[in-house]
Design a protein that fits this description.
402 residues; single chain; Aspartate Aminotransferase, domain 2; 12 strands; three-stranded antiparallel beta sheet; 2 domains; Aspartate Aminotransferase, domain 1; 12% strand; alpha/beta
Length: 402
């Protein structure tokens, strides 16, 4: 039987592919230190767990409205607005989904027409589901390259060159996966100035790491004049409260909220009611655990960047947010005779027992930017120290052999 072109073209998230490879090695008894999966290594806060148990015992087992329960939409509206300078976000502007990821597809489906040549600009390197969904939804993917010299942001002048009359959506992600890069207020003001000349372009602001910003206060492009109504603000519970498997995301836009609600009715029906009540507690309850997690990630960031910059042939910029480091391994590849970062990654896994991801897992390699790998430092300090030491030993050993 033949698959559709859409199914055949659908991409994947390589973190899960590599994780399966790691798990296979672990089953064989191999000692593997993994930095490949992007999720907090903490449990969800105790008060959140208790709220979920309470929801189960109170019989909150059924469907909810597709847009989410009212208490969560109200809490999320207040939370999103408070994080973004008091934007006029109303509960009816917020839609709750089974994680933030589905809203990537909903946003593309709601702003482009299949096969019409509509274009979506997205960051490269970037979260691989962006490109996958652009293609699957029948739009044209247009990558905007991120550069190490800009701390993995992009030159707004490059954006101006990429926008055409067919551009319908710009995807921005900050703090950024996979590099940890930020778009600060000055860069966002330059981007907004360009977009005001192109009123047909929506913005999908993937701000899932908004609470994990280490250099100053988080700032959203939606806060700039003329940008609120055309910006789809996407956030959620996964990263801030260590709730990845609970699958709760929330997205706000005053125009598209009813459309996203219909998409959910057509797909998931609704997010888990139990998880929704837990998310109400996550937002409204004490923030001590979330603050402690952020502080731990900050300490781990400083640790891993310092260690990586001491590894032969490796250099690493200081990421401004999230929990990813994106070291340049161009010289390390040369020293050990690895053709590229993917060969380096494979050899590091099988020869040294260190699992991470290569730059090509996040899009086509940016011309002239060299070779990079991604570490998720959502791992213990001991694992970071041991893993980077193994990497250094691996390079030294194989450089001598080469």
């Amino acid at each position: 039987m033949k698959l559709s072109r859409r199914a055949a073209s659908l991409g994947t998230e390589n973190a899960f592919v590599v994780l399966a490879e790691v798990n296979a090695l672990l089953r064989q008894g191999r000692d593997i230190i993994s930095f490949c999966i992007g999720q907090p290594d903490f449990p969800a806060p105790l008060n959140v767990q208790e709220a979920a148990v309470r929801a189960v015992r109170e019989g909150k087992h059924g469907y909810t409205p597709s847009a989410g329960i009212d208490p969560l939409r109200e809490a999320a509206a207040k939370y999103l607005a408070g994080m973004r300078g008091g934007l006029p976000i109303r509960p009816q502007d917020v839609v709750v989904g089974a994680g933030a990821k589905p809203f990537i597809a909903y946003a593309i489906l709601s702003t482009t027409d299949h096969g019409a040549g509509d274009e979506v600009i997205y960051p490269n390197p970037g979260f691989p589901i962006y490109e996958s969904q652009i293609v699957a939804c029948g739009a044209v993917p247009v990558p905007i390259h991120l550069h190490e010299a800009y701390d993995f942001a992009f030159d707004p002048a490059e954006l101006e060159k990429l926008i055409t009359p067919r551009t319908r959506l710009l995807i921005l992600n900050y703090p950024h996966n996979p590099t940890g890069g930020l778009l600060g207020r000055r860069a966002l003001e330059a981007i907004a100035a360009i977009l005001r000349r192109h009123p047909q372009v929506w913005v999908y602001a993937d701000e899932i790491y908004s609470r994990l910003c280490y250099t100053g206060e988080f700032f959203s492009i939606a806060q700039l004049p003329g940008m609120y109504e055309r910006t789809i603000i996407s956030d959620g519970a996964s990263k801030t409260w260590a709730m990845t498997g609970w699958r709760i995301g929330f997205t706000a836009n005053p125009v598209l909220a009813p459309v996203f609600t219909r998409w959910i009715t057509n797909t998931d029906s609704c997010a888990s009611q139990i998880s929704q009540w837990a998310a109400v507690e996550a937002i409204n309850g004490p923030q001590d655990a979330a603050d402690a997690m952020k502080q731990s990630f900050l300490e781990r960031r400083d640790l891993i960047v310092g260690l990586l910059n001491g590894v032969p042939g490796v250099s690493c910029r200081l990421p401004g947010g999230a929990f990813y480091a994106w070291p340049n391994v161009t010289e390390a590849c040369r020293r050990i005779g690895a053709a590229d970062s993917e060969v380096f990654r494979q050899r590091l896994l099988h020869e040294a027992g260190v699992a991470l991801l290569a730059d090509i897992h996040f899009g086509a390699r940016v011309p002239g930017e060299g070779q990079h790998v991604r570490f998720s430092y959502a791992a213990s300090s001991q694992a970071i120290e041991k893993g980077v030491a193994r990497m250094a030993d691996f390079i030294l050993k194989n450089a001598r052999a080469a």
